[in-house]
Amino acid sequence: MIKLTEKIGYGFGDMASSMFWKLFGAYLMIFYTDVFGLPAAMVGTMFLVTRIWDSVFDPIVGVVADRTSSRWGKFRPYLLYLAVPFALIGVLTFYTPPFGDMGKLVYAYITYSLMMMVYSAINVPYASLLGVMSPDPAERNTLSTYRMMFAYLGSFIALLLFMPMVNAFSGHSKELGDQQFGWVMAVVVIAIMCALLFFGCFAWTRERVKPINDKKTSLKDDIKDLFHNKPWWILFGAGVATLVFNSIRDGAAVYYFKYFVIEDEYRTISLMGVSFVLSGLYLSIGQIANIVGVILAAPMSNKIGKKKTFALSMLVASVLSIIFFWFDKDDVMLIFIFQCLISICAGSIFPLLWSMYADCADFSELKTGNRATGLIFSASSMSQKFGWAIGTAVTGWLLSFFGFQANAVQSAETINGIKMFLSILPAIAAFISVIFIGFYPLGEQKMKGIMEQLNLKRKSKKDVQ
User: Fold this and answer.
1) What pLDDT score was predicted for residue 273?
2) Which tens digit of pLDDT belongs to each residue from 286-322?
3) Do the Cβ atoms of 231 and 442 come closer than 8 Å?
4) Where does the pLDDT of residue 337 fall: very low under 50, low under 70, confident under 90, or very high at 90 and above?
5) What is the rounded average pLDDT of the residues 156-166?
6) pLDDT for position 218
7) Are 309 and 300 in contact (CB under 8 A)?
8) I want to staple 173 with a disulfide (CB 3.0 to 4.6 A). Which of 178, 237, 303, 328 is the partner?
9) pLDDT tens column, 61-83
10) CA 251/CA 388 separation, integer angstroms
11) What is the pTM of this model?
């Protein structure tokens, strides 16, 4: 039985990852176009190029982690040694150097590529940790729930406080130099919090599950087993589509409020001396709604199964997203209500995905005798990167296609395109994820049989020893 402290400690890891991940998703595009000074199409291409390479890098990390052996286990050492590099490179990503256009582009490619690589190097082992903390699927569901609750809590804190911190550090100045200073200093605060959370995750978690087969397997065998793992491929496809859904909605939200709703025309909401803008409230309220979805995921999946819960949630999210397109700029209350409803649906998905990846590891172990946990869980990070690569690249390219001009009054065509980013486009991605998950074969009864057979093999191994 895993204690509450360890569940919280495991949650700390994704709280750290999600704080930066949400900054990337919600603010990095508009940072590069409106603060850093790059054209939208160029940013879209950069996101696609760097994230596709980084997606390929994820399985490499998984393979290396599977072969790591230390007194702290296979996966926990990465949390200890990479926490500081993760924070430092994150700060450099949001720093604007005094270079010309080409120098800035090269700097952006280098720092963002390094950021995504160090993200993989710490996040793939962290995700894999779920598969070795407990052999019990029910405890994994609980750990996954804690993970996602803390992830959304971290995202809520980052999204709610980030722009107020930017404004505070910049002295509420609209001058570009002041804005650039405000952005990087706000990221420094977030980066320090992330490093401390990773240290907490390392200290409070333990690795318990040992593979039945202790023999070293070749990389060729690991990859061969993975390619024959049908449930893994299905989850990979569903995960990519789900992340496209999220990345388009998050990445376009600030544009939506800045250029369509025109949040500067609204009075800011102040609490305890801190002024919050509409876009920040919209994004942070979405994280609270995500937590509600996480809480609902366990009882729903226990009642109707993970597969049906996933499909129903994304189908509803798709329908609600289509309705979202028809809202006017003055329908702020409806915009926020639908943000909550869509985010509840989206929030229920990710604890199911992480738990289902653990099921794929069990399926592979029973089928092949090989438990390549790190390689299998790297799919979760890889699907994130592919989904975000596609979503952000499409956002950048379509912004350019619709005639977007940074810090200017937008045309009717551009505004219509920005509206589509929060409605029609994510609706299509959500529906594609429903199609993928319809083919997922590892239902509750199937997993019950798999666990019974694995437990018998583990018991036989102990008896022999």
Assistant:
1) 58
2) 989 988 998 898 889 888 888 999 999 999 999 999 9
3) yes
4) very high
5) 91
6) 67
7) yes
8) 178
9) 888 888 888 999 999 999 999 99
10) 10
11) 0.76
Query: 332-347 and 349-368 are packed helices; what angle lies between their axes, rounded to 10 degrees?
Result: 20
Mean pLDDT of the chain: 87
d(CA 265, CA 154): 29
End-to-end Cα, the chain, rounded Å: 25
Nearest residue to 350 via CA among 392, 304, 287: 287
Of 384, 427, 414, which Cα lies nearest the Cα of 24?
384
pLDDT higher than threshold 60 for residue 464: no
